[in-house]
Every structure is written in C-alpha cells, then in structure tokens.
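note to self: dont lose this again. the chain is below, predicted strucutre after it. 308 aa total, dont forget to put it in the shared folder this time
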Amino acid sequence: MDLRHARTFVTVADLGTVSKAAARLHIAQPALSRQIRDLEQELGLKLFDRVGRRLVLTGEGEQLLGDCRSLLNCASSIGERAQQLRRGDGGILKVAASPQFIEGTLSGFLDRFTQRYPNVQVKVIEAIAWSDTLGMLERGEIHLGQNLLRVVQPDDPHFASHPLEAVDLLAASHAPLMLGKSGAIEIAHLASQPLLVLDTSFLSRRTFDATCRLAGIEANIVFESRTPHTLLAMAESGHGVAIVPSAVRIDRYPLHIVRITDGGKPLREHLAVFWDKRRSLPSYATAFCDMLAEYVREVFPISRPSEP
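---
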C-alpha cells in the first residue's frame, strides 16, 4: 500500500470532506479524490459513502481505519528512529498540554530542558480536553500528552504514563470565605455560594460535580468557562467564587484563595504525562518526562491558599 494513499484515507476520515483534507495535505482536490479511488480499487472495497457534502466511512472503511493509523505510526517511528541514529540527542519532541499547565509549568521548564538538550526542538500544542490529547496520541501527531493520571487505567494496553505531582481544587473569591482549618473550606459550606466553574470537558469539574453528588449537595453554579482566567476575572469583579486547580496562576488577581475539602480531605488529583506504548519514544522524550517530574516537584503547587 502506498503510504500517501493511507495518509489521504486517514485524513479524509478525520476531516469528513475532500476540500478540508486537500487543504490539510496541500494537494489539489482532484488528485486527492483520485488517490481515494486508487486505494479503493487496490483494496477492492468501498471506503466512503457520500452524505450531503460529507464523506462518511463505510463499515469496511471503519475496520481499516485503525490499521491504516497503525501503518502510518510505524512509518513515522521508523523515520524518527533513523533520525535518532543520525543525530544522537537531537530531534523534534511534540508535547500536548492544557493551557494552565503550559502557563504555570512548561513556560518555566522549557529553558531548563533546552539547556540539557540544545538540539531538541520542543513543539508545545495546546489541548484542553483529554479527548483532544487522546486523538493526537492515537494519530501519532504528538509524542507526549499531559492530563490527570486517572484518565488512563494503570493496566491500559495502549498508553503508558509518568506520574507528576497532585493538584488541589481551590476556591478564589473577592471577599473572604468562611474557612475551616488550615485555610480550607468544606464543599458543603461552599456549594451555596455563586460558583464560577470550568465546563464539563475538564476532569477537575467532573470531580467537583461527583463530590457534590456523593455529598447530596446541589451546587449554585452561575457561570461556566473553558478558560480558568475568565473565572478568576469574574471572581475579581465580585460575580462569584471561582473554582480552579492549583496548577493555575492566581497571583495576578487580588483574590482570597482557600483549598476545597470534603470531610477534611482536599479535593486532589494527580497529573501525569502519557505516551503511546506502540510507538517508540526518543531517548530525549524519556529524559523530558524525568526532568519535568523533578521540576514539578520543585514548583508545585503553582497557587496556594492565602495567608491568614
């Protein structure tokens, strides 16, 4: 099978239209359509049905899609391995991470890594939801992806992880909150406040919701956002209490910050870096994980409860 045909097939399947796929691959639409026809003739199968302006995978196409992704990943791994052999400790490292992790952690860490590996070009890609990171890992578009540790089971056959430090859920408010011990507030006391929360694409939000359900609490949510700093700006203006992870920088906002607890225990999640076991990692990617874990131990939590 021609790798160009496999790449075209996967790209059309991902984007759903010939025009978008042609733009992504930088080829003319007629040439792309011809590649799809050639692949169908080679395989003796119809791969797409046209539904309106979109191309939808047939049942046979669905079954072949995963195999073609694996083929492209293998080809990419061979190229990367050859590059490693030629350049030793040099190459490209693609890392996906959340905006708050990029701002609070990677922005300070990258200089340290570059000093150790000056010939490695790190390309950082912003990813909010785990589904975005998962898709990029499966398509071989990134080497490493950062998220909460529990998004992947320890015995997962496809993905391995390097654990990082934990993040706590914090409440940030323009006005002081009723505190418990050690600068913390029980979620039962917090729920009646007007709450500014991340949307449900964030696992930290789902952790907050699940804790409320288990405690029989109905949270007073007045605003949702995909951007933690939007919540903090709203809190600064007195519109409610922002619920954000401790990996977010809050020091630029004049807010009172407390840790959220449930039964005296903090709402806490560990972070991790993930990679696809089916794809060989460059040695500098493994070093990146080790050095990042060390750096995170030094700087976490990025934001802490306010002093009494």
